[in-house]
Amino acid sequence: MYVQVSIPKLSDGAGSAVAKDPNVLVMFVDDIATEPTRSHGNVAMNGNYTLASGKKAIALYLTPGTISAGYDTEGEVDAKGFKHKLEGEHPGDDASVENFVEAAANKGMVVLVKSCDGGSGKVKAYGSKCNPLFLTPEVTDSKEGNKTKLAFAQEVAQKFLPGVYTGTLPEAAAAAADDSSSTETI
Fold this sequence. Notes:
Blueprint: E1 23-28, E2 32-34, E3 37-39, E4 42-46, E5 50-51, E6 58-61, E7 68-74, E8 81-91, H1 95-104, E9 109-114, E10 123-126, E11 133-142, E12 145-154, E13 163-165
Antiparallel strand pairs: 1-6, 1-9, 2-5, 3-4, 7-8, 8-12, 9-10, 10-13, 11-12
């Protein structure tokens, strides 16, 4: 429930960009056993994300400076809602990112993003089990560079902004084995 308070300027530079931890945590909604609860008018989330037995989150590296997280507002009067979104670039097109892109096609996800604000780092949750994010990838392999742009967005607007998650972060899966030494030829 919303409690009315005045909203002063926090400090000088309060509107400056805040760096993000380059490793975001991705959870497929089918793997989430329980998720935190929310109440309208309060971005704080209560509880923890717990994953089904044997399931782990995916720590996905995104190039610092390319991470953009937020929401869009849409709808008519009395029906305004928020669509969560997140995007960033992963350098290269290695097998691990291509395997993720292929496996994530048409799967709903929740993504946790941690800010590097000099303190403990605020963690925001984008998407939910019932209204997940979906991935739209874009690959560039040209003279401009070799990168995979990963854009996550909700399909349906909802009444909740991205939540502030203070619970325990889910365990992340191990990194893929280095496949750069492969001797396979084409």
